[in-house]
Amino acid sequence: MDDAMVAQPSSTAVDLHGDSSLQVEISDAVSERDKVKFTVQTKSCLPHFAQTEFSVVRQHEEFIWLHDAYVENEEYAGLIIPPAPPRPDFEASREKLQKLGEGDSSITREEFAKMKQELEAEYLAIFKKTVAMHEVFLQRLAAHPTLRRDHNFFVFLEYGQDLSVRGKNRKELLGGFLRNIVKSADEALITGMSGLKEVDDFFEHERTFLLEYHTRIRDACLRADRVMHSHKCLADDYIPISAALSSLGTQEVNQLKTSFLKLAELFERLRKLEGRMASDEDLKLSDMLRYYMRDSQAAKDLLYRRLRALADYENANKALDKARTRNREVRTAESHQQLCCQRFERLSDSAKQELMDFKSRRVSSFRKNLIELAELELKHAKASTLLLRNTLVALKGEP
Amino acid sequence: AEVVLDDDREDLFAEATEEVSLDSPEREPILSSEPSPAVTPVTPTTLIAPRIESKSLSAPVIFDRSREEIEEEANGDVFDIEIGVSDPEKVGDGMNAYMAYRVTTKTSLSMFSKSEFSVKRRFSDFLGLHSKLASKYLHVGYIVPPAPEKSIVGMTKVKVGKEDSSSTEFVEKRRAALERYLQRTVKHPTLLQDPDLRQFLESSELPRAVNTQALSGAGILRMVNKAADAVNKMTIKMNESDAWFEEKQQQFENLDQQLRKLHASVEALVCHRKELSANTAAFAKSAAMLGNSEDHTALSRALSQLAEVEEKIDQLHQEQAFADFYMFSELLSDYIRLIAAVKGVFDHRMKCWQKWEDAQITLLKKRETEAKMMVANKPDKIQQAKNEIREWEAKVQQGERDFEQISKTIRKEVGRFEKERVKDFKTVIIKYLESLVQTQQQLIKYWEAFLPEAKAIA
């Protein structure tokens, strides 16, 4: 009985064809009251590191610090920065477990045990997912030829002590606020409202494409989540049904006894199948859509940066013209304009490559997950059919 | 101006032109304390009474079978009758409108003049039929199947002309319920003999039933429950000579509780499946949009295919929810109401016993009075006392006969009911599981068609 909940990084939508000179994984994770502690293990033969194998313990805030360090680094302006992992959120799950504990006296002990089992499985699944998200983030960095050489990355992987970035939380919140203001300016840029003229067809296409794509994938992700949620509710409904059938069967004195008991067993097994179906859909569909929603946002961010560089370049041109007309500080204006031009061209070249990589990554990921989704759906449907047919044979066979 | 009656008004007035007279049984509360007029003329007692006097209560099983045989012989032919309720049609406009249903009977029974015939009936006609049957047979121990529930909200929507899916759903739910109701009623060999039932099935014209509040399934059940409460409040300490009755009552009580629990859970299932269907449809649309945006051709095509698959799956979920409801959920709610009728019948027996007890007590009192009068030597009072004693001796005898009769009838009825219940549940469970299998098989078909599309992404 394979556990569909094992978090395998490759199943979460990222195809990593990096070399083995730097391997990163989260070998262990512990969930404490209000935080998760990840054990980040690195295996590397790179000369930079003191050992070939070592691990450190990191918390979510430290991952965010690393992500922001990349984003703020001008050197990586032309790259798609892998999206930061989402904050671990066990609130909902914890609340449900608590509510169950407070207890509804009308449910039987078996029902209670089953519901508890379900909720614990849910908690475990969320936990595994958050581990996978954090792991994938690091693995993408490790696979990228440029990003993997970052000094902060080395520090993150190797430095044994706490990175003391907790205080940044307040800054993070404030930073988030400021970032949103900047973002609306970016939106204006990217939606063409700023009057900036795009000279490159490739980027023009990418801009229109990404804007629409991001909105639609976000929609699809939200709706996939709702489907998954309904599926889960359905599976949970089988618990009281199975319990009631069981009681009915126990009480009956006639031929319905065996029918009810068999039916109770059937619903219990169907519940497990439906539950597995829901979690597979979650992993293969919802999570994949969510990941590419974030990745496409990261791609959009890249476009923003390029457009800002273009805006700078255009402004530098205008300044140069002005300087030439007035014949004042022409050389400064010239060198500034050259810098802007170089920066813009460097960004454009790198962005082009990154966007093409993004596309191939996306396509291969969708392919893999859609195939796996279809295969799992088939597997479960066949298992359900077998189960139902066996029960039917047993029921029909009785007098 | 003519006051036109509609199905669901809570306060109803008699139409002057109606054939239903003031003395009709519908007018009296179903459980009156006086002897109901229905005891004597009813066919069942005359049918059964002469034959079984000689048999005792000692072998109930054989007893039951011979009774069935008797009734079959009396019918002359084997039970063969099929009822369909179809073609709901709105008649009239506004708040006076109502739904007319076609009731079709197919039968080879000789008691009917034709082998296939149909009539148009409205909901209150069904309620009227049930009330007549209930008033004749409930208090002598027959389990009369309850009529479907009234629903003011549902009917109002239909009347007002809302052509949306919820009113079509409501009409279909009602049509199916009416069909099941009639099928259960005709399956009862005693009720099948009833002239009112035959008139309902055959007559092209039927006198309008009035006071349908009292006649509704809910109304009858309310009265049955009220009687039950009254019985309990009377603290009848019945010397239950027959443990069978106590056992059965307990069994039905447990069954009732469990069925209610199961029913509530199944209703939740139906609700969530409908939600799943709606959410799947929404997802299908967004998957299609995503496919349109996707600039990689093969992936774009695969996503569109995914959207199509999800749309078909939404349809599947809807159909499955339909099956969940009509097969599983409605079966349970039918039986919850049937069991209420069974409980009512048990309570009638207790009331019957109480009446017999009371008659015995009164007889005792009359005898004491006679003795007193004899001592006091008052000849005319003595004569009066003797007359009263004779009267009450007869009542005691009648009370005992009635009690034995109702007990016999209930035993038989419960046996028949349980047999039917087993059959019903087994049939429906199998049908329901087959619907689940169908759904899974369709899912397999859809995903098998999709898999190569996903693999084709290059």
Automatic annotation (TrEMBL), chain A:
Residue ranges constituting the PX domain according to the UniProt record: 16-164
Pfam families in the record: PX, Vps5
One Gene Ontology term of the molecular function aspect: phosphatidylinositol binding
GO biological process, any: protein transport
InterPro entries: AH/BAR_dom_sf, PX_dom, PX_dom_sf, SNX5/SNX6/SNX32, Vps5_C
GO cellular component: cytosol; endosome
Keywords assigned by UniProt, alphabetized: Protein transport, Transport
Entry coiled-coil feature ranges: none
Family affiliation: Belongs to the sorting nexin family.
Job of this protein: Involved in several stages of intracellular trafficking.
Name the record gives this protein: Sorting nexin
Provenance organism: Equus caballus
Lineage: Eukaryota, Metazoa, Chordata, Craniata, Vertebrata
UniProtKB/TrEMBL annotation, chain B:
Occurrences of domain PX (ranges): 79-208
UniProt feature, compositional bias: Acidic residues: 1-10
InterPro entries: AH/BAR_dom_sf, PX_dom, PX_dom_sf, SNX2_PX, Vps5_C
Coiled coil: 375-409
Stretches the record annotates as Disordered: 1-43
PANTHER family, per the entry: SORTING NEXIN, SORTING NEXIN-2
Protein family (similarity comment): Belongs to the sorting nexin family.
Function: Involved in several stages of intracellular trafficking. Interacts with membranes containing phosphatidylinositol 3-phosphate (PtdIns(3P)) or phosphatidylinositol 3,5-bisphosphate (PtdIns(3,5)P2). Acts in part as component of the retromer membrane-deforming SNX-BAR subcomplex. The SNX-BAR retromer mediates retrograde transport of cargo proteins from endosomes to the trans-Golgi network (TGN) and is involved in endosome-to-plasma membrane transport for cargo protein recycling.
Protein name: Sorting nexin-2
Source species: Equus caballus (Horse)
